[in-house]
Every structure is written in C-alpha cells, then in structure tokens.
Task: structure prediction
Amino acid sequence: DQQVKQNSPSLSVQEGRISILNCDYTNSMFDYFLWYKKYPAEGPTFLISISSIKDKNEDGRFTVFLNKSAKHLSLHIVPSQPGDSAVYFCAARRNNNDMRFGAGTRLTVKP
Amino acid sequence: KAGVTQTPRYLIKTRGQQVTLSCSPISGHRSVSWYQQTPGQGLQFLFEYFSETQRNKGNFPGRFSGRQFSNSRSEMNVSTLELGDSALYLCASRLARSTDTQYFGPGTRLTVL
Result:
C-alpha cells in the first residue's frame, strides 16, 4: 500500500531557480513529515521536517509546506545549486510508528 | 560521534542461499529500523527493533527476519534468497521510539544471481 506518493520520478531545474518537489499522502493520521536527500552509494540524509500542527517550516534554502486538507506537502529549494542534485524522498509517520517513504524524485540542477 | 555503520557494503549471493547483514547504530540510539530500497519502489519498511524486541513489521515474507542485541546492534537475515531480493538494504537508527528523525547508514548492496 503506497501511502506516500511522489508522482514525479525526476525533475530538472536550472541553477539559481526554484526547485519544487511534491509529495502526496493518503493516511490522514500521519502527524510528522520528513524530507531526506540521497546521493548515490550513500544512505539518505535528513533534510527538513514538519509537524502536522504547522503548515510551513524553513531552514536556509529549504522550505517545506504542508497542506493537510489536500494531504500534500512540498519541498522548495531556493536558489537551487548543482550540489542539490540527488534523489529526494518524502516520508511520513504517525504516533511513533514506522515511517512510510515515497518512491523518490531525482532532482538534477543544471549549471 | 560516529554515524550508522553497515557491513558488508556489498554482497553477492546465489538463489537459495541465506544472508546476514549487520547494522551498528549511532552510539546511544536504541531504535533500529531496516528498509529495502529498489528502483521505483522507494524505501520499503521491513521492521523496527527497540530494546531487543521487534516493535513494527512491514509487509515482507517470513524469509526476512531480524534481531537486536543488548548493545543495540542489529542483524537482518534473509533466507532462501530470490532474485527479487536484490536491493539496497538500509538501516536507520534513532534515539528512542518517540524521536521522529532517523539517521541512515550507507546501506548494503545485495545482488542475488
């Protein structure tokens, strides 16, 4: 059961522009959401998170937006840099239960 | 503080064999979770261990099993390997089950021939 979906397998953006990665979920009980970044041959690294009581969380160039009514979250990267090129996974969990991940979106930032 | 370590990093097995993967969590972390990553499927949750007890389990067959030791190190075992078991197996640790953020190891790349 794919409770967390990332419908865009890939995204290509020009350096300096905004990258917007999207994620949809089906389980309204999820109360915490995270974004991870993964480079080849490495494990995912935590990027940013948001609790369901908030609708926005910002950390430097990274901002996560949560729309609970639409069961949708997005990650904005501004400005995008070539080093941001990686696979981005969104994840969701509820009540300390296991984390559910999306299939990932491969972001390519072109110089 | 050292990160999550996984051994071995790469493994090649043949169908029908069994394999054991090891994970050492970040010092002080007591929860260890295992994931399988395959192309197009993202990370699929296998199971979580805390205080040497399995707390959560994903939708994988019984051929996949695990355990956790008193020092929080964890092992994952896959018996009667199938070609479809070829994947990157990731281990993640967190301080406690109430902690939201998990930290991942580099993974073990398993290839089944």
About this structure: The radius of gyration of chain A is 13 Å. The mean pLDDT of chain A is 93. The CA atoms of residues 38 and 44 of chain A lie 4 Å apart.
